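quick one before i forget lol
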Amino acid sequence: MAKDMTLLWGSGSVPSWRVMIMLEEKQLQGYNQKLISLQKKEHKTQEVLDINPRGQLPAFKCGKHILNESYAACFFLENQYKSQGTKLIPDSPDAQALMYQRLFEAVPLYQKIVEIVLYNYRVPEGERHDSAVQRNKEGLTAELKLWEGYLNKTDCCLAGKEFTLADVLFFPNVAFLFRLGLSSERYPALAKYYNSLKDRPSIKASWPPHWHEPPELDVMKTICYLNPAQWIY
């Protein structure tokens, strides 16, 4: 089955990592894969464009089906391989509703992370505007405040005790935050979640190779709130 799949991926690409975790959870190892260098702009080569005309990663083929959006790929794999590997959509209506709510709520979180990273990485320091920096920080801080509250009310995973599709899609966001310097002391619930899952076999097996080296950016170290009434940046 996995031999009919092809994944072109980038090290540290959160969407790529989601698909890789999913493939591990569904016991679909042995798929055709190639590490694409984002630094060398290999994601704009014809090899990638033939699968993903947007020139983005991942570029994923499952048989004759092309699924380049990580959410789409993960849902497709769960539906196609329900009886294989980890069951990632719970039967309980309560857990299922919470899982769907949290996994789609993770979309704006990732967008806010990317806004900060791209502004710091692509805009020269002398051309950055304080108002834009502040606005981006405020957006992410408000989002993280929500997730701290959510995770304080759950067990080890987003929808309860069981690892679900929501965790497949959400965990790489959290790992990216801590990779970029988010404070464990300031965000203890997020840190607990991260530490409880980072050694899960599917996550360890697909860990971004270059993340074993020190990060180039620490843009999240100043993201902080003290309490709901007092914000510090």
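fyi The chain has two domains: 2-80, 93-232.
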